[in-house]
Specification:
Strand order of the largest sheet: 1-2
Structural class: alpha+beta
Radius of gyration: 14 Å
CATH topology: Protein-Tyrosine Phosphatase, Chain A
Shape: flat
Distance between the termini: 19 Å
Helix content: 25-40%
Number of strands: 4
Length: 98
């Protein structure tokens, strides 16, 4: 499980991640990684995925913008996931698609 920033709006992203991380670690059924940068988190997920794995991106739904305080930012998870897959190639893990 990779915990990353999504759209914290007026909340402190580090505090939000810490709360999610604490719950995930308490559950104790998966490796938990913190990566604040969402692009890097997607790349990590793609790199860690084996051929029959499924990568689930949760939290944002169909929103194509996110906000850090008053600063909006265009960020489409599907587009960025496709870029991460393309950058990772198919290598030894097999073909990927989004």
């Amino acid at each position: 499980m990779i915990v990353t920033d999504e759209s914290p709006e007026d909340e402190d992203p580090a505090t939000l991640r810490a709360e999610v991380l604490a719950g995930a670690r308490e559950a104790g059924s998966a490796e938990v990684v913190e990566e604040p940068d969402r692009d890097r988190a997607l790349a990590l997920a793609v790199a860690a995925a084996e051929p029959d794995d499924v990568v689930v991106i949760a939290g944002r739904g169909s929103e194509s913008n996110r906000r850090f305080g008053s600063r909006p930012e265009r960020f489409d998870d599907l587009t960025r996931l496709r870029q991460a897959i393309a950058a990772g190639g198919t290598g030894k893990r097999g073909k990927r698609s989004a």
